[in-house]
Structures are given as C-alpha cells and as structure tokens.
From TrEMBL, chains A, B:
One GO MF term: calcium-dependent phospholipid binding
Family to which the UniProt record says this protein belongs: Belongs to the annexin family.
Lineage: Eukaryota, Viridiplantae, Streptophyta, Embryophyta, Tracheophyta
Amino acids binding Ca(2+) 2: I253, K255, G257, D297
Biological source species: Solanum lycopersicum
Name of the protein in question: Annexin
Keyword hit for Metal-binding: yes
Source superkingdom: Eukaryota
Positions with a binding annotation for Ca(2+) 1: F24, G26, G28, E68
Binding locations of Ca(2+) 3: A295, T298, E303
Membrane-spanning ranges: none
GO biological process: one example: response to stress
InterPro entries reported for this sequence: Annexin, Annexin_repeat, Annexin_repeat_CS, Annexin_sf, AnnexinD_plant
C-alpha cells in the first residue's frame, strides 16, 4: 500500500511544470512549492510533468532540480522524480561505481522487486549507460559476491503460488546439510535462492524451520563479520520486504548520525509500493511512528519531503 | 530475411481454421492442405488461426495437430505453429529434460536471439511450465556447463553499436592470456562472453585476431573431445548466426542418416528470421542449394513442409 497522497483534483501537468519553473526563479529556490507538487504526484503524473517541462522550456526537469537543489534534499527529490525503473537502474549503476559501491544495494533491488519490475530496470539501464545492467554488476563485483549477485539481478522468477513440496523438502534437506558443513558458498545454495519462485522458497524455508527447529536465517548467523554471509541472509530476509525495509529504516535512524543514504533510498523506492505496511511494521517494532522518528532525526526541506512521501499531512 | 511466402490475399483466419478442421476429418488427414495453410502464414496470422480455431471448435489447434500428425512432419508443423517465444520456451524446456537434454540447444537460443526475443522466451516459459526458464536450466545442468549456460540464457545484452576500444583491448589481452594458459574455464572468460554486447564482443575478437594472428575460435580448438570447449566455441560462433546455422544444417544433412532434429529446429526457428541469408551461405559453402540438399535427404510431407518454409515454390 502506497503512502502517497495525491490531491483529489490534480492540476494539468503543464501547470505543474510552470509552477516548478517558477520555483526555480527569483529570490532563491522555492522548496516548499517543489515538495507541494512533486511529493504529491504518482509515477505517471511525474512523467507527464517531466514531458510537459521539456516541451514547454526545452529543458530537462531533472537537470534543473539537480542544479537548483543541494544535499539530502536534492537526492530524495531526484530519486523520487525518476520513474521506478529508471530509479532502480540508477541505483544499481551507482552501486557498481567504486566510490558508491554497494553489494547490499544490488541485492536489495534484485530481491525485493517483482519479476517484471526487475526486468524493467534492466530495460531502463540500456539507454543511459550504454551497457547492460548485469554487465556492470558482473564487472564490478568479484568472487562469491559476483556468483551470488549476478544470478539474483538477472532472475526472472516465476510468480505463481504453486509449490512443489517434494522439491521444498529436498531443498530444505540440502540447505541444512550444507549449512551444517559451513559450506555457505556452495553453488547449489546460490542456485536455489536465485532461481526458485518466492512461494517455493517460503515453503522450503518453512520446511527447514519445522524440521530443524531453527529458522534458516538463524543458522546463517555463524559469523557476523563475513560480508558474504550477511548478504546471503539479507537475500533471504528480502522475501519479506516489509520486514527488510523496516530493519533498514530502523538501523538508518538508530545510527549515530542518521544514514541518510539508506533513509532516502527506502522512502523514495517504497513510498509508492508498500510504505503503509512498512510504517505499521516500524511502529509495531519500535513503539514510535516512523513519522516521529524521521522528524526527530532529520530537518528542513529534507525532513518535509520525507514526511510528505510517507503520507504525513495532507496533499 | 524471412524465407516465408505469404499469399497476396490471405483468407480470414476463421476460414483457415475451418479448412484445417476439414483437413483432420474423413479419410485420413489432408497433409497437403495443412502445409498449404500453415507454411504460408506469418506468426501473427498463425496466432489468429489458433484463436479462431479455439473460438469456433472449443479445441486447441496444437493438440489436434499433435494427434493427427506423426513423426518428423508432426514435429516441424508443431514447432512452426507455435509463436517464436513459445517455441523457444518449448525448445529450452525440452533441452533441460533428461531424454532430450541438450546444452547445445540452450546455448543456441541464448546466443542467437535478440535481447528482446530471449526475454520473451523467458516470459513465455512461466505459464506452461510453472517455473522460470533459468530455474530449469540451472537445475538440469552441472558444473562448468551451468556456469556458462545460466548467464548466457539470462542475459539481456545491450544492443547499441557503441564500442569501447580500451575495453576491447583489455578483453582481448585477457582472453589471450587465459587461453594460452589453457584456463578455458576461467570465470572472467564467461563473464566477458555472457555480458558484453555483441558489437563489443566483435571488436574484442577482431582485436584478438589482429594482435595474435589467429581467430580466437582457432585457439579454442585445442581439444575436440572437450564438450565444454566446443560449447564455448559455439557460443562465440553464434555471434554470426548465419554461419552458425549454415554449419548446423550442413552437419545435419551430411550425417549418415540426416539429423532431423537439428534440421527441423533450424528451419522452424529461422524461416521467419534470416533463412534467406542462411540459404545464400549454404549455397556458397556447399555448392548446392539448400532446397536441393533437403529434397535429396528427406521425403514425403516432411520434405514438403521444410521446402515450403524455406521458400521453395509459390505460396
């Protein structure tokens, strides 16, 4: 469930584009107006605003936002204004660059998007980067990380509900053997996790839990300094995206000095997907609402933009 | 260039469906009529005929073809009648089954289809098989074959013409080092071949040829009993699909006892794509036309269907 609040009557996109153009002019930028418009338009509407802006002024709205805004506010507005597929392509590209490298970021997109959405990100990658997404992921990762991340990011998982219980039992038994032997890097583990449908994986992990008395996640907590193992665990945890994103938000806000990078990414990528559920989960787990936690940890236009996206206040 | 001959005036699909229904009735099947209709309709038209057949008779045309026809003729008609994406999905599925297992078949589809067509095959896989295509490929292949085939079949290559010459030089140098060391199974070789765009790969292999005096293919001919090496070579040769398919046809026809499996697959999958070019290449390479070679090696309705698909005679 989306947390986005769109006004009952949305202005014509040319009108929105004109207002944005005005917001950039004169005595400093009018950030309030930018938030008022962009934080309250859905993906289709934002696309129309960008098209109208280009048609009316011969300029790219994203470039103007980039040059008018700064810091965390700039990042959240830019990420948000992109279409979901462009945004995911952008985030993966960023995650493959040396200074912003993040196996975690690649894994998160691979494991929490629907099959179609993940494929759309791969399609959206070609035009701006003149390469394929998996080409950059494979080039910029090494060893076991590559072996795990490339199949995850290139998967087009079956999304039906059918579960093969024989296969679930076999998978669970196999995983347990390998984990007992600490053979975490076994290629069959990667095969199972990167190719099976999410329904099949859930059945497999439930069987694991029922038969071995622990969740598979717990059995993978052997060594908390092993970055590969952390990533593998997270790939499994992402089967429950709501809980995954709650955790990312919790850790981002709890940090000494908020992790704006994580906070921005989760809010910009989930606002239009399942932010209402993530908020419920956050409240349940932390006894404080996400609105209050964000308000306590951020400030200024950045805070206002985040709060608007998570549905605080009116459109 | 397609070899398909479609009549100037194509009957209404309901009329075609009715004729096909008639062809199945009475004193044995009328194979001539089946060829006359199906071998002269393009993918869109065949789809309409299937839809019309289902609407008019409440039956599946493919099932009726399956029960009315036999042997090689049955196989070529069935494969041909499928849409290209369904057909590729079917062929990959078949190639992952124990009795019809074929790493070669998986590689051919992975390496000769456009990025979009390969993805469409993955989409078309979900509904009939209730799994993902890569799930079956990964499950049914082992070791180095899996390491090569899974990235190939899940690739969504960039298809622009841009070439990065620095990268081509680096790639060529790297490939030469590994090949000199007989490290054919090196994961970087697989990464380069499975992720780079075809334009980039051509530039890389041209650089290899220019700098080392041999084509990379020649340097990979070390050991002709090594099935993995053969597959790797073929994956490279598939960059030039016309030459690859000419070779498959040549070997299929030259065999003591034609290889109908290969012959059928190439004709059914390429008739609507580039069969005219493959025919030119075949003629150039074998000093006999493909029509004559096929007529000399096959017979009956199977021969007639193949010849119709490669554009022999009139629509």
């Amino acid at each position: 469930m989306s947390s986005l609040k769109v006004p009952a009557s949305v202005p014509d996109p040319y009108e929105d584009a004109e207002q944005l153009k005005k917001a950039f002019k004169g005595w400093g930028t009018n950030e309030e107006l930018i938030i008022q418009i962009l934080a309250h338009r859905n993906a289709r509407q934002r696309k129309l605003i960008r098209d109208s802006y280009a048609a009316a002024y011969g300029e790219d709205l994203l470039k103007d936002l980039d040059s008018e805004l700064t810091s965390d506010f700039q990042r959240v507005v830019l990420l948000w204004t992109l279409s979901p597929a462009e945004r995911d392509a952008y985030l993966v590209n960023e995650a493959t660059k040396r200074l912003t490298a993040s196996n975690w970021g690649i894994m998160e997109i691979a494991c929490t998007r629907s099959s179609d959405d993940l494929f759309k990100a791969r399609q959206a990658y070609h035009a701006p980067y003149k390469k394929s997404l998996e080409e950059d992921v494979a080039y910029h990762t090494v060893g076991d990380f590559r072996k795990l991340l490339v199949p995850l990011i290139t998967a087009f998982r079956y999304e039906g509900d059918e579960v093969n219980m024989t296969l679930a039992r076999k998978g669970s038994k196999y995983l347990h053997e390998k984990i007992s032997d600490k053979a975490y890097h076994d290629e069959e583990i990667i095969r199972i996790i990167s190719t099976r449908s999410k329904a099949q994986l859930s059945a497999t992990f439930n069987h694991y839990h029922d038969h071995h008395g622990h969740e598979i996640i717990k059995d993978l907590e052997a060594d908390d300094d092993d970055e590969y193992l952390k990533l593998l665990r997270a790939a499994i945890e992402c089967l429950k995206p709501r809980e995954h994103f709650e955790k990312v938000l919790r850790l981002a806000i709890k940090k000494l000095g908020t992790d704006e990078w994580d906070l921005t990414r989760v809010v910009a990528t989930r606002a239009e997907v399942d932010m209402e559920r993530i908020k419920e989960e956050y409240h349940r787990r932390n006894s404080v609402t996400l609105d209050r936690a964000i308000a306590g940890d951020t400030s200024g236009d950045y805070e206002k933009m985040l709060l608007a996206l998570i549905g605080h206040g009116d459109a």
